Amino acid sequence: MSIHQELIIEASQYLDTNGALLKPLPDVFSDNKLITDLYQALVLTRLFDETAINLQRTGIIGTYASCRGQEAIGVAIGHAMLADDVFIPYYRDIAAQFQRGVLLEEVLQYWGGDERGSNFSQQVNDFPLCVPIATQLCHAVGIAFALKYQSKPNVAVVTCGDGATSKGDFYEALNMAGAMSLPTLFVINNNQWAISVPLERQTASPSLAHKALAAGISAVQVDGNDLLAMYINVSDALEQIRQTGNPFLIEAVTYRLSDHTTADDATRYMSQKALTSAKQKEPLIRFKRFLAEQHSWTDKEDQTLYQQCQQQVDTAVEAYKNLPTQPPGEFFDFMYEQLPGNLVEQKQEFIDGLKRHE
Ligand SMILES: Cc1ncc(C[n+]2csc(CCOP(=O)(O)OP(=O)(O)O)c2C)c(N)n1
Ligand SMILES: [Mg+2]
Questions:
Q1: Residue-wise pLDDT tens digits, 209-232
Q2: In terms of CB atoms within 10 Å, which end of the chain has fewer, N or C?
Q3: Is 255 in the pocket of ligand 1 (CB under 6 A)?
């Protein structure tokens, strides 16, 4: 049997790159506070991101993965989820984590090399960010299974990059979520790069959203730089999952306006032309124009918002700097209830080694 039918994936956009509204907004946006809260979250994330890079360059944190240009994805997820849904993030998801109650200083603590930053003080439902590519997708399906088993009306929301969609874990997770009807929302941050590998070398699929179809999962491709489109699509997907119990996939199309991490130099492989063009489409400029045109947002209000957000970031940096340092070797202590003998030896060896170098 051969399949001739063309599979159609709908693309969703509300704001064009100039911030002009392309179609009427749903009623939920008659709430001005929602709109300014969304913008505040964008600005906070951007300023935190810039500050974190400076902190890494001055040796105050160890490494950092910037989300510059991709903030709208996380802000939408963080705002649309219910408090007792479960978020299973990867390393570019601070925008959503902040909205979910993870503290800014906890994120700095994590990237400062202190794993205790993942033991969130205010957010007990969500998972720590995942660095091994795509493994979080399988964890999310397990969590969705548990939510269904417990008859909870909640959704496991998991994110991954475009590169992660080439991994077996991605296909396995989708297959199982589809076959077992598990309440999972998959959101792909398609930022066009997996470190230095461009999307076109990653897949021959017409879109990443198409990858959901073989698993029997509905999918939509969204302009990931359009915060309104992202918020509407994530909200609708969550609602649909709650109603039907079936999973859903969103491909958010965006661009990485930064190095892969602070350990990378993107000028070695990213064309300046592509970067310049992507910068014109980024989410903050567009949303500010929309606010100015539709909500009479002034430059003065904008400056005040930036000052307030920078103040919040600076306070978090101070809080991070004042955190007590981790006792040497403590990072051995949290994987097992009882540390196995060989790790007891390794821990001692580590502490002795430190003493020798003092
Ligand atoms: C299992 C595994 N293999 C390889 C790596 C190294 N690695 C780190 S980031 C990355 C690329 C990921 O690209 P993508 O999924 O597009 O996410 P992005 O970083 O672009 O957000 C790779 C291969 C890893 N962290 N884990
Ligand atoms: Mg990527």
A1: 999 999 999 999 999 999 999 999
A2: N
A3: no
